[in-house]
């Protein structure tokens, strides 16, 4: 059965690194050895050299053009991906540089490549075995003495991407040879067993010359003399691997990030639940404006498994507070079902581990295939005594007692099954290897701890970047030196622009003057548009915590209500009912909400307009249940507040909540005081986002959301949401039609005087560079088709479209000097615009920092304009982007993302609360929502089963304008059927 050791060498302890999404590489794969313990199976016999088999088709050794997967590690822009698209299109080029605002010089965390390789570089195609071998085996073969001897003939510094490509400084004839890993390790093939021939550990390596890398083509593209082609891709791909070659050998490599194998205490922290966070360095080579290459260097934070025994990890995964409770709940359930923790235990699968019961000489690394349903006392196998040949059937528990004199302390835990056939270990003898990434969604406690660890002010972040540069050590990198590549270690300086801040406009002509502070307050301010229907029917419900102790007293709720409503009236709110019913003491949350809904309606003899829900904690599960119940069961708006803030009863907190409260009742907080008319013709803004489930949540659908501006100033928005298949980024044609049609119809009737808009902005979030072409050919085409259908009565009035992608997931950061361009924390002031040096050489993109960082280092938003049929002036568009960030209706500070996209992001996240859970088993442990079933169309037109959202209760008693006019989209319109009033309920 199982077996291993108590001490290991340093090499054995290091976990294999995962790279570019491939399988983990490590000794378990590099040193295949049949299991010789009881109950094992030697597996399929293979006597031929791997890679020479005629039964398996070899991979083409000379793929051309370069595979699209190479694009993952380098920021090329949309032009590179356009090469591989079945529907290529022309992306918009930069018109001009902006003259808006004032100039300022700031530093950006990028470094100029001062010297390129000038020697000849030759690319080779490499096939190891059949070409489909696991990454760990490929690494083991490439690290062999035989391979090192063969590639020495190509000159120093042969680079291999651990895939199919290699580079060298000389051209040599094609060659093919065999590597025997058993000979390399001084081992002999295992003896024949069960009539099977011995398994040979031989692998064929084929190296074939492919082409000469033309770096001159890359330079020509940067100078604008050639278009992007496959040669440029090959050149940048080589430079990327040249940059990665040395650090990937000494550090843990996760795509473009590198982490120390033995980090100092400041670079790691425990997050609870068997997870630790580590701080590393990120680097990526980029084509940049200014006819140059730059290397973007930043801090990278990631989560890893804490290297503990599996039984301790199982305990921490369970979330139980004590081992006694864990022991009583981790057994198989009385009805024969698996332990309730099995979904969490399965997270251990595919990880590397070593065992600690065989002695210090054991260095083998194993891989978890799955977690068995059987425990150490349930799983039995035959053991043959070598001396007598006697066969005894015994359990794993008995085997460890007899073989190793180890009485298992937790035999009820499920066994760990390895990749080798019939090899299982008890959890308590398995120890997780170092440096293995934790790919699952963090819980609320882990997230809070991760934020504390990752957040750092600009001076601290810059110091961490400098520490990362020391790890990369470009000046002494033997590969960079050998190929003649030199990178400036000093951050580059760029000429930025500081845009003038706008003034938020409130009722009665009052304005706020945030200047460059990026903040203002609501004292003495009246909302630009209060609720147009007085607040008559509403209620307050206090949800009980698990210990059933009321989180607030009645007097505290009364005091908060009085202060809240007094402030609301001061901000212009219309309130007729100052004494709504207060419901508390109901142990069931759903029943408490229902009770409050009925009492509020009965007291006012009117369908309730709003429920205020007082929460005892920040549980995401409770919050989602509240929103689902209010949105889908009752069709009523809800406002959640924390009990701790009710107790404090601070006016500033009340005013902040009132911004949301007022918007949910159809009001508007403020708008910008435009110095110039933004929209010289009728304009509509559409925002869109698709949110995806966390890794590992395979049953969770992606949620698509679209928002539409609902007034002439584009300050109020409505939203629609729908499921969009599993991890499908492009919004399906049917979803676009279903979500947009009722919103566009309302806009035409109430804003456009029966006509479609003349100018249409489409802001899209979450789309990668590789999806730009699909965005234009699919989503934009679908929107145009819908507009044509909606404007059939006005065929000559087709809207001109401006398409912009907003991206927050990047590593560009600004480091301004103190003064006009920087605030007291070292962050850029709101309105900092960068369009040179780190942007694309030719495409139309900018980086805009429109917000004030609450904590940490500000991350600018990357805006990429793909289409502009209206031919907007550069300054007008950039000012529109920035100033509209001051129109976010729930904040007294500009936001970091254009509001139309921000609202879409909020709506898509809210939609996860609306999934129909009735058909699914919900785990009490992981508290992750899992989707029901419904048929929708995915991007490729095929049918895919994914969760349809629950139907929403029609909102009788609340005007349509209040529903889709809400800037916060708390009631999300999905189709026109949702707008039909429902029959009145009997509140008597």
CATH class of the domain at 683-813 and 864-950: Alpha Beta
What low-confidence regions span 5 or more consecutive residues with pLDDT below 50? 1-48, 52-67, 918-948, 954-988
Please give the number of β-strands.
Answer: 38
Average residue pLDDT:
83
CATH topology of the domain at 683-813 and 864-950: Nucleotidyltransferase, domain 5
Q: What's the N-to-C terminus distance?
A: 71 Å
Instruction: Write out the CATH superfamily name of the domain at 683-813 and 864-950.
Output: Ribonuclease H-like superfamily/Ribonuclease H
Q: What is the CA-atom radius of gyration, in angstroms?
A: 31 Å
Widest beta sheet: strand line-up: 30-29-28-31-32-36-35-34-21-1-33
- The fraction of residues in strands falls at 15-25%
Q: What does the largest sheet look like?
A: 11 strands, mixed
- What is the CATH architecture descriptor of the domain at 683-813 and 864-950? 2-Layer Sandwich
